[in-house]
Amino acid sequence: MNFSSLRKKINSRNSSVKELMQEIFSKIDSKDPEINSYICLTKENAIAQAENIDKLIQNNEVLPPLAGMPIAIKDNICTKGVTTTCASKMLKNFIAPYESTASSKLWSSGGICLGKTNLDEFAMGSSTETSLFGVTSNPWDKKRVPGGSSGGSAASVAAGLCAAAIGSDTGGSIRQPASFCGVVGLKPTYGRVSRWGLIAFASSLDQIGPITNTVSDAAEILYTISGKDPLDSTCLDEPVPNYLSDLNKSIKDLKIGIIRECFEHPGLNPEVKESVLLGVERFKTLGAEIIDVECPRFNDGIATYYVIAPSEASANLARYDGVKYGYRSNEGSNLLDMTSKSRAEGFGDEVQRRILIGTYALSAGYSDAYYKKAQKVRTLIRKDFDNSFKKVDILLTPTCPTTAFLKGDFANDPLSMYLSDLLTVPANLAGLPAISIPCGFDTKGLPIGLQLIGNVLEENKILNAANIFEIDAQVIKNRF
Q: Given 88, 109, 149, 275, which residue is catalytic?
């Protein structure tokens, strides 16, 4: 299901938008109990939105650009009047009093909200196994995880339960599940899209972006949700190009840098490596120039991330104290006791683990040794990227070291699970745009993702290269 196919149905007038929405909800009712990609559905609002678009069509009025496109929203992004839970007991009954800027732009452009998708609690995880609302299954193999933390968003797109979904990416939470589920996942430049209404995990890393079936759909959504927002001081005041108009340009002589360190890491699965290198050869046949580059500190990103992100999380999640909103324990003889028990009962194990790590890293006597040193390494990682972009236009890596793993594989080994973000976190640390696109399958039939990283605000370059690759891949699709 993609925008192009849906628009053909709508323009043919053989089906009304309302009928299309009813078909999609029927499919969700049938398939999602097994996948568990949605936390809640907004069926009544969606049907009402569809009826309004049908009236515009009947009156031959000009339709907004995303008219009738069914979109799902990750449940850590606020939607007015709808529960926004972060898949946590802490916010189980929280109904957002306002709409996020990104989702507001989608609805203003005619997009239709189907519901809120499942995620790892407070977006902290790589498997969508820590949700209060149960584990999400990978549509390719329901014994396996869809990735995380935007696993519900990626699974809903892959299963055809929406045309596109919005996720958030702190260390790979859009791209990693996109890779595991065989769809397209785009993390924009930090500040390209407003974070207003995104419930914060790590504020210097978080970014909202699309998960879609095609690169062109990702480009269209990015164009819709980008732009300056006075409600977000970190949002960039830069012109937003029409990313769709930059697609289908020749990539002849495009310089693509292959980050050597990514392909030499011992944790990289041989089948993933082989598939991505075949993708490199395809880019070469399409006219791109392939250049080896070095980013010496690239593989230090994971250790750096797991100091900075928990530190920021410990500060951001301090607001959940059981007083103003959120879960409140019935026990506790005084304020301190009540707050402690509310947080202990309201947060799951992974969230508590990261809060404790972050609090320790920021504590007196340790912040210089951990947090400040991690910020220095972050600067060095960004300098490595800057040096690479002096030689090449975009960079290429695998998206993940492996394909989707079995549910429960890392239940007692969180450190090993953290390594699934090894190749995605550096782009977040440097604030760079990056996209994951499908490039093949392993011998188990599981999707493999290829990642393209661009320089600041150069989403157009990675989108165009990804689109050309996608079009070419369709020609030899049966070879996968």
A: 149
Instruction: Work out whether strand 289-293 and strand 184-187 pair parallel, antiparallel, or are unpaired.
Output: unpaired
Q: Has residue 92 been placed in a domain?
A: yes
Domain-embedded: residue 268: no
Integer CA distances (angstroms), 74 to 116, 142, 145, 230, 341, in order: 5, 20, 17, 23, 28
In this structure, are residues 46 and 25 in contact, taking their beta carbons and an 8 Å threshold?
yes
Residue bearing tokens 């090449």: 392
Q: Is 74 an active-site residue?
A: yes
User: Of 14-18, 130-134, 248-252, 329-333, which gets the smallest average pLDDT?
Assistant: 329-333
Under 8 Å between Cβ of 40 and 115: yes
Active site residue 149: yes
Read off the pLDDT of residues 400-443 as tens digits, 9 standing for 90 and up.
999 999 999 998 888 888 888 999 999 999 999 999 999 999 99
Q: Could you tell me the sign of the dihedral formed by the alpha carbons of 427, 411, 374, 296, in that order?
A: negative
Does 432 map to a domain? no
Evaluate whether residue 441 is within a structural domain.
Answer: no
pTM of the model: 0.96
Cα distance between residue 336 and residue 202, in whole Å:
25
- How many domains does the chain divide into? 1
Catalytic, out of 16, 37, 74, 342: 74
Q: Which two tokens stand for residue 437?
A: 């696109």
Q: What is the CATH number of the domain that holds 94?
A: 3.90.1300.10
Q: Considering 131, 153, 168, 173, which one is annotated as catalytic? A: 173
Going by C-alpha positions, the residue among 149, 127, 136 that lies closest to residue 201 is: 149
pLDDT tens, 133-164? 999 999 999 999 999 999 999 999 999 999 99
Is position 324 annotated as part of the catalytic site? no
54-106 confidence digits (pLDDT tens) = 999 999 999 999 999 999 999 999 999 999 999 999 999 999 999 999 999 99
d(CA 327, CA 323): 9
Provide the residue range defining the domain that includes 40: 3-246
> Could you tell me if 188 and 222 are in contact, meaning their C-beta atoms sit under 8 angstroms apart?
yes
